[in-house]
Amino acid sequence: ADGNVIESETARVQASNIASFLQSQIDSLKNLLPKDVVVWGPEIIPYAVSTGDEEQIATDLNANILIYGNLHELANSRFRLEPMFHINLGDDQAYKQATELGGDYALGTPIRFRQSFADEGEVNVSLRIRVQALAQMLLGLSYMQGGTLEDYQDATELFQRVANESEWANLNDGTGQEILYHFLGAGYLSQAYLTEDDAEERFALLTESKTHYERAIQLNKEYVRSLNGLGAVNFQLARRLSDNEDGCSMDWDLLEEVRLLREAALNSPFEAKPSSGNVDLQALFGLGRVDFLVGDCAEDWPFSAAWEKARENYQAAITEFEKIDEPQSSAYSVAGYVHSDLGYIAFNQMWTTAVNEGDRTPKVDRLLALATEQLAEADRLLALADTEESLNQNKMIMASFLSVLCLDGHDVQAADELNELLERIEQSGLNFAPIRTIRDEIISEMNSISFVPWEACQGETQ
Fold first, then answer.
1. Domain ranges of the chain
2. Between residues 403 and 276, which one has the greater pLDDT?
């Protein structure tokens, strides 16, 4: 009867047919993955896979992808196959960037067919298309996880090729194509973060990113990760780097659009928020950043009301981050930026208070302690993010971090923190300036904002 799950030989035969077909497509699958591909059918797996025990079964079988699900018998020799996918990549954390690819979401859209040779062939083709899409997405996500400009370029090139050439990307069947376009947007956006010195290239990358995030939203308005993505792109577009000498030449109207997008993501239903997207964390961070920029350019700087609003959203973002059992690189990066901004706020309030009061008052000491705490946590979290962008941010906050350490008499720690950063930059193999140049630039900036120059902090012999 309609809706009854078949627990009989019929389902096993269907599974066997699907496995045989995928085995026949082994060459095309091998071309998509940098490893050998083996397909096992129900003859190898002695038991049915059910929701809840996928992880253990995949581990027992040393299987990377399990295809399982339910086969429902409908009326008039018609069936409904509800495929599900479980991904098990061991220590490779790439899949955790988009866990919605598995289970019964997107690629698990039901397939209806009749019990005929022609229809069953279409079922096999449909699953082959989905498996190929899954393989390509996983490979692209593994590139994204690398965290360097070159990695983002490789990921974007692969996602773009899938969008242009794959059967799956051009189907209008609601099987998760919005995920592809979301990560295409993310790939271009990640490159833009690392091209701040080239305004023309940065603008082109942001424009591409915006197009793909908008495409993802068009395909599925309930895929709220892309609301955050579009908000992040518009935030960058609002920062007119090419003609923004004072840092406050912003497109303020576009920043208000960012606020609306972030609020829409935050206020979306819980079931619309994939766990891998850290939707609330990203939304709160985005809201905080808008108010952070508004406050940084306010007439009542550095004690602006906007900075108080930013602090509230940032504290809420920290609470969301602390709920994550195993943070991914992107979550560490967001949390690092949150603490960077909180440290910047406290540092500037401390500096202004000290100048106005002319002494180390208790208020100055409280703000100094807060700035030190926030910048130290930012430095730690950004190091854990371990990407080219996060290392850049580590470098950007170091002058302020050294300033508060030296002001509070932590000369040894200041030297250790600077040396550790320089060592990480040198070991990264990335295209940074010479280490001596970076060191001199950080110390020069630190001297321009600090009450205690570097030489005085480190002693006359420095």
1. 1-131, 331-462
2. 403
